[in-house]
Write a structure and sequence with these properties.
The chain contains 15 helices and 13 strands. It has 413 residues and is of the alpha/beta class. The strands form four sheets. A five-stranded mixed sheet has the order 5-4-3-6-9, with helices on both faces. A hairpin with a 4-residue loop joins strand 4 and strand 5. The two termini are 41 Å apart. The protein binds zinc ion. Zinc ion binds next to helix 7. The site of zinc ion has 7 residues, from helix 7.
């Protein structure tokens, strides 16, 4: 029997902390301290004081309460600078809770269980076809998540579930909204179903938004605003603001860039009903069609494109360059509009060769004005296919350790 594949190791992900102002509720203090420890940014009382921006006594009281309630535990000591005695090192208790993560793409899903200190306790990649509709896809997701839980430590409650789907979603209602490539999913109560299955809060997010957030929180804090452009079966975007949080827009449609049209694009028909959408002319799926490789199974077609490109097949490389030029036009426009610190190009094609990135770069640097590109970093994803899981881990752990929910942990429920 083959040994199981190694678990993806997520890098330390920075968690946001609640805004502090006026009289600070104790739940806000507890949330701030717990999130800073879970981030790994401050793991002793002395480090927490400047990191939290709270008084020493306030931090001390919060740490003692979180230790007494079993949310935090002592995890050895860490040396201090100078001659002081080593400080107690704090960590989230592994018994505090599990968070279930599902990053569902058009043809495959990454599923994982993490604890509140961001350790991946189980992971599996499974084939799914979102065109099958919500019932069979979510049944597959749930059965594998439940199986992963059996490998994790027993008697630890599931505190949150986070799922990403490849289409527009209403995060408030927890439903997909007219997703072009997901027939049967419109208004399906995804969050309510997972909430019922696992008896805990469930968060629904767009898959590219999850990648954008995961990427931003794995990078230094100065790499925002961050725009993530995913080029796969379709084309999608996700935007993390200068404050490090997702920008959803008024209705959750922000970043849904697959159906805009760019200069010079051919009139190919798109699944949305329009013609010439960037997704219809420059996605990996569109390149497969152009090369005559499209045959029913999109994942197979895209794998064929990848294989040709990594072998340096001139026709395939030419098609990728052409697509990169069109995507570059779009990215140049977005760079002018939002002035991001970083643009990350992700998705299945970027892993095969640097052709796509190089093409996008050349157009962006040629077309965008110097002020917008002076410090711009335009690069491939640092987390690759695990970016979505990282973003889901951030959302899930932040939810569990939020001021609104941390009472569930401290009350021992
Ligand atoms: Zn379209």
């Amino acid at each position: 029997m083959l040994p199981p594949p190694p678990l993806p190791l997520l890098p330390p992900l920075r968690l946001s902390t609640p805004a502090l102002s006026g009289r600070i509720e104790s739940a806000v203090t507890l949330s701030t301290v717990a999130r800073l420890v879970a981030s790994g940014t401050a793991v002793s009382k002395a480090d927490l004081v400047p990191a939290a921006g709270l008084a020493r006594t306030t931090v001390s009281t919060a740490v003692d309460e979180l230790l007494a309630r079993g949310v935090l535990r002592l995890d050895g000591t860490r040396p201090t600078s100078g001659r002081g005695r080593p400080a107690d090192r704090l960590a989230l208790s592994p018994r505090g809770g599990h968070v279930l993560l599902a990053d569902v793409g058009a043809s495959a899903a990454h599923l994982a269980v993490v604890d509140l200190s961001q350790r991946v306790l189980g992971h599996i990649q499974v084939a799914v076809d979102v065109t099958d509709g919500p019932e069979p896809v979510l049944r597959t997701v749930e059965s594998h998540l439940t199986a992963l839980l059996t490998q994790a430590p027993k008697d630890v409650p599931v505190r949150a579930v986070v799922i990403g789907l490849p289409g527009p979603v209403d995060g408030q209602l927890g439903v997909p909204v007219r997703p072009p490539i997901m027939p049967g999913w419109h208004a399906y109560p995804v969050s309510a179903r997972l909430q019922h299955t696992y008896r805990c809060p469930a968060v629904l997010e767009n898959d590219v938004n999850l990648r954008a957030l995961g990427e931003a929180r794995a990078l230094p804090a100065d790499q925002v605003p961050l725009l993530f452009v995913k080029v796969g079966t379709g084309i999608g975007g996700g935007l993390v603001t200068g404050e490090g949080v997702l920008h959803h827009g008024a209705d959750g449609a922000a970043g849904d860039i697959g159906h805009v049209r760019v200069r010079g694009a051919p009139d190919d028909a798109c699944v949305c009903g329009n013609v010439g959408c960037i997704e219809a002319v420059a996605s990996a799926g569109a390149i497969a069609r152009r090369l005559g490789l499209a045959h029913g199974d999109e994942a197979v077609s895209i794998a064929d494109v990848r294989a040709l490109v990594s072998r340096g097949d001139p026709t395939a490389v030419g098609a990728v360059r052409e697509a990169a030029g069109l995507i570059g036009e779009l990215v140049a426009t977005l760079v002018h509009f939002y002035n991001p610190a970083r643009v990350t190009i992700g998705g299945s094609l970027t892993a095969a060769s640097d052709e796509l990135l190089a093409g996008v770069r050349s157009v962006v640097y040629q077309r965008a004005l110097p002020l917008a590109t002076r410090n711009l970093v335009l690069t491939n994803s640092v987390l690759g296919e695990y970016a979505g899981l990282a973003g889901a881990a951030v959302l899930g752990i932040e939810r569990v350790l939020s001021a609104e929910q941390i009472g569930v942990l401290t009350s021992g429920r």
